Amino acid sequence: MNLDFLLDGIRPVDLRSVRWPGKLNLLVTAPHPDDFDAIGVTLRYLADQGHDLHVLVAETGSGIDKVYGAGMTQVDRTRLRVMEQTGSFRFFGLPKERYRFLALANADDDQVADTAENRKVLEELVREIRPDMLFMPHGNDTNRAHRAMYAMMKTIAASVEWPVAMMMNSDVKTVEMKKDFYLAFDDRQAQWKSRLLRYHDSQHQRNLRDRGYGFDDRVLGLNRRTASGLGIGLPYAASFELELYR
């Protein structure tokens, strides 16, 4: 599919104003369980528009602190995070055949590493799914796993034989990015997103202990700041930077 329509309009472009040329194949590549949920309202909107949504989640037990994970092995922590994400997918309404958890090679911090082996696994799946658009956290980020996933997917997007649009989302750990697109949402949709995020109870409880507010408040706080910076009418927004490979 020709993706040049994504270059139209004055930046940043409201995703709700995009004239889609047809049904697209969308693939989320999440370096952690919960990266999907960080852009859950956007993904719900796109799925409601009729686009096909697929998700690949790198397995990790990282992010579970010593209090919540007391007595757990690394395998236990990974299983817990997979269980949390599976509950989130069910709440979202994503069918089982549309998501996969990947036991990729992880670095010493138990987060996905940028390796030739992992790139091969991801490229095989990309070629199987043949996405038109890829969603993932931005590469200009303090989180190493976010940078690793971006680097691998950038290489893969540049190597396949069909046009691919990479859509990198803002995250609380993003250092800096362009805002090519945004998806604004209201309080009702924010409440839905809060419920989605709270399926990750291990992350929610850690945020309550470490920061004094929940995981959902942390993510929605970013969405509030994004909307304020854009000067739009709605109180929340997710933003994305585009890289187009054709």
Structure description:
The protein is an alpha/beta fold and 246 residues long. Helix content is 39%, strand content 18%. It is built from 7 helices and 8 strands; from the N terminus they run E-E-H-E-H-E-H-E-H-E-E-H-H-H-E. The chain has helices at residues 40-48, 74-92, 116-129, 144-159, 187-197, 201-211, 215-230, and strands spanning 13-14, 25-30, 52-58, 99-102, 133-137, 164-169, 181-185, 236-245. An 8-stranded mixed sheet has the order 1-7-8-6-5-2-3-4, with helices on both faces. Strand 5, helix 4 (144-159) and strand 6 form a beta-alpha-beta unit. Helix 3 (116-129) crosses helix 4 (144-159) and helix 5 runs antiparallel to helix 7 (215-230). The radius of gyration is 17 Å and the shape is globular. The model has no long low-confidence stretch (mean pLDDT 97).
Question: Which features characterize this protein?
Answer:
single chain; 8-stranded mixed sheet; 246 residues; alpha/beta
Strand arrangement across the biggest beta sheet: 1-7-8-6-5-2-3-4
User: Level of helix content?
Assistant: 25-40%
Order of helices and strands: EEHEHEHEHEEHHHE
Number of strands: 8
Report the structural category.
Answer: alpha/beta
Radius of gyration: 17 Å
Strand count, sense and barrel status of the largest sheet are:
8 strands, mixed
Cα distance spanning the termini: 10 Å
Q: Detail the poorly predicted runs.
A: none
The percentage of residues in β strands lies in 15-25%
Residue-averaged pLDDT? 97
List the helices and strands and how they pair.
Layout: E1 13-14, E2 25-30, H1 40-48, E3 52-58, H2 74-92, E4 99-102, H3 116-129, E5 133-137, H4 144-159, E6 164-169, E7 181-185, H5 187-197, H6 201-211, H7 215-230, E8 236-245
Parallel strand pairs: 1-7, 2-3, 2-5, 3-4, 5-6
Antiparallel strand pairs: 6-8, 7-8
Helix pairs in contact: 3-4, 5-7
